[in-house]
Design a protein that fits this description.
CATH architecture of one domain in chain A: 3-Layer(aba) Sandwich
Number of strands of chain B: 3
Low-confidence stretches of chain B: none
CATH superfamily of one domain in chain A: DD-peptidase/beta-lactamase superfamily
Distance between the termini of chain B: 18 Å
Strand order of the largest sheet of chain B: 1-2-3
Number of helices of chain B: 15
Number of helices of chain A: 16
Largest sheet of chain A: 6 strands, mixed
Structural class of chain B: mainly alpha
Strand content of chain A: 15-25%
CATH class of one domain in chain A: Alpha Beta
Number of strands of chain A: 23
Largest sheet of chain B: 3 strands, antiparallel
Oligomer: heterodimer
CATH topology of one domain in chain A: Beta-lactamase
Chain lengths: ~475, ~400
């Protein structure tokens, strides 16, 4: 008898252990596995939750809807429309049950799907007042008011034409993003997205990539702006110096740096070197500055750092470190080549900071969030990121950049009466090991004395910066200021 | 310690749980649902009445068996009502019948040892039930373990388990030497073989757990258990090599994610449900347990975890273990070895079922469709479990 009760005790203990193991596994599952799987795209709950609330509308700055939702005929799901189509695809993004969320749809998802819930006491009161039956009202999410100017966005999209590239337009005083275009684009509307999804993903030109914030390009001569600022900060008497530009800067028997198109500018001063974009002079200045100084100035402008922003995610631009004997690389980096990589947004912020007398404003796409009944939920006031350069240096740079457009490489961006200032860039890059046609860059702002708009334009493989990109920038500025 | 106050405390907590849950169910719909309140009250009255009867007329028995059984059933009925109120009404009727048969068995059942002599009847019945669905079964949810008969459908292996327990109890009660073990061993192997053929791997695991537990209690020899385990492992390896469906189950279990739109759809949906609920759950009516297939029976644990939280899931496991423990304890009071083995086998069956299905829906072990005793929807299962508990209740009175 004892033997048996002993056996029963042992069996009970074994089962106890098994129960503890299974309970522990369930606990482990909740703590470690759950967070990893719960947001999987095939978890229908995510969209079921979203469908309980009719998704809010995204507006441009003039209350033109960029994305809006209607209930589907089944009464459960909803349809999202993007009246702006491909022109706004990257900045607005898409909210699609199959392909997920991107852009503003992703960044502001919690607002767009938020709707004030009734609390328990109100609920019960209403239940009693209505004698047990409750009228369910359609819940509508909050609306997001953006800073985007639809006309400008469309104009920028059209001006890019069939090129690959990006255009950004910012109000330098506030950091409001007025337009943000990336090409090639795609139609974010549900049926189109479904029909083209495999083609979009197979496309080597990567239409889904938002080049404006995630495209990393060699900035080319637009980077001379930062080199010039660094020279103004670090080299005494730079303004009074003259340089001999014989067309080639030779480092050793193998490496050298030449001016664009084999030009030679002869004896020129600092401003002339910037206005005519002399590679030889800026290579020389780069060597005089050395990598640490130039890198510090670049990092002041948020290279190698997270640029604060709202409503967009900006990839970090990169400025490399070199040893002092790597003369070729140091000189190349001073003219925006050799591992220097910048996003169009980064370069737009450089122009914007100069335009705003040295104060960088946080770039943002959303000005406010408003509840469906009109109550203000959240407003965004312009936030300075910091004073990056002194007003003196900013003024000198404004003068230089105005010179580029009046007398230098950027005359194509000149619009009479608008006083455009800017800098061109023609960025060499390799494509599959071979030298490809250079990227065409332009950064600038206008009017020079009271800047209302700062722009950055890149046209991939667009050739000389003074032509393709400068023309687009001019068009964008004209559209924005001629109202 | 005054057992009556303890029991009453526990019962009061159960009433509270039941009434609050059904009140919650009554107000989650757009229209106030008075039916839910009625059902909640009916369940409470029934539990109180059953406890009163047992307490009044059979004060020597173990009262906790009934109470734990009732708590588990009420959690199940709350969840089933949330998922499908019509089915919940049926389940409540089965609960009433279950309690009734529990009481009837306690009152009317004569000495159990009288039934020990029908060994070959049990043997034949076991073989008939375990083999039945191989020949006339239909395949559901990847296992061929249902038999449809005049519009009714049932799982013959449910009955097979009961008869196997009865058979093993009568075969092992007179254990003296190794020779006597050969016949039961063969019977168990044949049943396991049929389960594997029917792709019902979970039942196979449960049959094995029952057999090993009873073998150990009857013989007290660990070496037999060790030999059985070795044979079981060999059997697993052989069926893995031989049967595609076994390999499929193992493949899904190792990594369910690549097959989540087809072969592993159910277990992945179940995992989403459990993950969505987290520890405290979404609250009744606020989750999406309808995305989990067969959520009223096999996957009720996932549905409960989603809306009531993993904590209630733990509570179910702990209550199931306590029920198992009280049933094993009843075996100690049994006067004869047949009753004792019966009690042990039956307890092991319930516990193994909980472990296999909870392990399955969380993908801890390969999933097989099995009901969670007392919690899952199922008329026959509810009735049989309460009858089994009635027998154990009877056994628990024996020695006092």
């Amino acid at each position: 008898m004892d033997e048996i009760s002993n056996g029963i005790r042992k069996v009970s203990f074994i089962f106890l252990l098994l129960f503890v193991v299974v309970i522990s596994y369930v606990a482990y599952f909740e703590i470690y596995t759950s967070p990893k799987i719960v947001n999987n795209s095939d978890n229908k709950r995510l969209w079921a939750i979203r469908n309980e609330v009719l998704r809010g509308t995204i507006y441009d700055r003039n209350n033109t809807p960029l994305a809006s939702s209607t209930r589907a005929s089944d009464g459960v799901t909803q349809n999202r429309q993007y009246p702006g189509g491909a022109d706004f695809a990257h900045v607005v993004g898409y909210a699609n049950p199959q392909y997920g969320l991107t852009g503003l749809e992703y960044e502001y998802d919690s607002y767009l799907t938020a709707s004030s819930n009734m609390n328990m006491t109100d609920y019960l009161k209403q239940l009693i007042a209505n004698k047990g039956s409750l009228q369910q009202q359609e819940k509508v999410g909050d609306n997001v008011i953006t800073t985007i100017d639809s006309n400008l966005q469309k104009k920028a999209y059209d001006l890019l034409g069939n090129n690959r590239g990006a255009v950004i337009a910012i109000n330098p005083k506030t950091g409001e993003i007025l337009a943000m275009v990336s090409k090639p684009s795609f139609d974010p509307n549900e049926t189109a997205l479904k029909a083209n999804w495999s083609a979009i993903n197979a496309d080597n030109n990567r239409p889904l990539l938002n080049r404006a914030v995630s495209g990393l390009y060699p900035p080319g001569s637009t980077f001379k702006t930062i080199t010039a600022i660094s020279a103004l900060q670090n080299i005494n008497g730079i303004m009074n110096k003259t340089f001999d530009d014989n067309g080639v800067l030779r480092f050793n028997s193998k490496e050298s740096l030449s001016d664009f198109d084999g030009e030679a500018f002869g004896t020129i001063n600092f401003k002339q070197a910037y206005v005519h974009s002399s590679n030889v002079v800026f290579g020389t200045i780069g060597l005089e500055l050395g990598n640490p100084n130039l890198k510090k100035t670049a990092e002041d402008f948020y290279f190698n750092r997270n640029l604060p922003s709202n409503g967009i995610v900006i990839d970090n631009s990169r400025f490399p470190s070199f040893n002092s004997y790597e003369k070729g690389n140091i000189a190349q980096s001073a003219i925006g080549q050799s591992e220097v990589l910048a996003t169009p947004m980064e370069m737009a912020m450089v122009a914007s900071t100069i335009a705003n007398n040295g104060v960088m404003m946080e770039p943002h796409v959303v000005s406010s969030v408003v509840a469906s009944d009109g109550d203000n939920v959240k407003s965004f006031t312009p936030t300075p990121i910091g004073t990056i350069i002194t007003p003196d240096i900013a003024n000198t740079m404004k003068d230089f950049m105005r010179g580029v457009v009046t007398d230098g490489t950027g005359t194509n961006a000149n619009i009479s009466g608008l006083d455009v200032a800017g800098k061109t860039g023609t960025a060499d890059h390799n494509d599959g090991g071979k030298n490809a046609k250079p990227h065409s860059w332009f950064i600038g702002f206008a009017p020079v004395n009271d800047p209302q708009i700062a722009v950055a334009v890149i046209v991939e493989d667009g050739g000389q910066g003074g032509i393709a990109a400068a023309q687009i920038a001019g068009g964008v500025i004209q559209t924005s200021l001629s109202k | 310690m005054d057992s009556l106050t303890e029991e009453k405390k526990l019962l009061r907590a159960t009433y509270l749980f039941c009434l609050i849950s059904f009140f919650n169910l009554a107000i989650i719909k757009p229209k106030f649902d008075a039916g839910a309140i009625v059902i909640g009250v009916v369940i409470c009255v029934l539990m109180g009445y059953a406890h009163f009867i047992v307490r009044r007329f059979f004060p020597d028995g173990d009262k906790y068996i009934l109470i734990f059984g009732c708590i588990l059933s009420s959690i199940g009925m709350v969840m089933i009502y949330r998922l499908d109120s019509k089915i919940a009404v049926k389940q409540v009727i089965w609960f009433v019948l279950g309690i009734a048969s529990f009481i009837l068995i306690v009152i009317l059942l004569p000495e159990l040892k009288k039934y020990a002599k029908f060994k070959y009847v049990y043997l034949v019945a076991t073989l008939i039930f375990v083999s039945m669905s191989t020949f006339i079964g239909t395949e559901e949810l990847g296992s061929q373990n249902w038999v449809k008969f005049h519009g009714m459908s049932f799982q013959p292996s449910e009955f097979g388990k009961i008869f196997l327990i009865a058979y093993l109890a009568s075969a092992l009660k007179d254990y003296e030497n190794f020779k006597q073990l050969i016949e039961p061993a063969c019977v168990v192997m044949v049943t396991l073989g049929f389960m594997v053929l029917q792709k019902d791997l979970g039942s196979a695991l449960i049959f094995f757990a029952i057999a090993v537990t009873m073998l150990y209690i009857a013989t007290s020899k660990f070496k037999y258990v060790a030999v059985s385990l070795v044979l079981f492992v060999i059997g697993c390896l052989i069926s893995y090599k031989l049967f595609g469906h076994v390999r499929l189950r193992v493949m899904i279990w190792k990594n369910p994610w690549p097959y989540r739109s087809n072969q592993s759809y159910q277990v992945v949906q179940s995992m989403y449900g459990i993950a969505w609920g987290g520890l405290s759950g979404t609250g009744l009516g606020l989750g999406f347990p309808n995305y989990v297939p067969v959520n009223i029976d096999d996957f009720i644990f996932s549905a409960i975890c989603e809306e009531m939280g993993a904590l209630v899931g733990f509570a179910i496991m702990i209550l199931s273990f306590l029920l198992f423990y009280r049933c094993m304890r009843a075996a100690l009071f049994a006067e004869d070895k047949f009753s004792r083995l019966l009690a042990v086998g039956y307890s092991a069956m319930m516990a193994a079922q909980v472990l296999v299905i909870v392990g399955g829906v969380t993908n801890m072990i390969p999933l097989t469709g099995i009901t969670l005793p007392l919690v899952s929807y199922g008329g026959t299962s509810m009735l049989m479990t309460f009858m089994g508990l009635g027998v154990l209740q009877k056994i628990s009175e024996g020695g006092r």
